[in-house]
Amino acid sequence: MNEKTYKTMTAAGAGNIAIGIVMLAAGITCGILAIIIGAKMLKRKSDIIF
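RE: above sequence
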């Protein structure tokens, strides 16, 4: 019984680490894209007419 619990906890821990890495990569990607898009908007600020 203890071995089954240990295997379940190991799998859950590995899954959480994998999800954390994916979320970190997605966050960095979104941040870089936001900076690039913001820079492009600032570059074309004079073209915007309201």
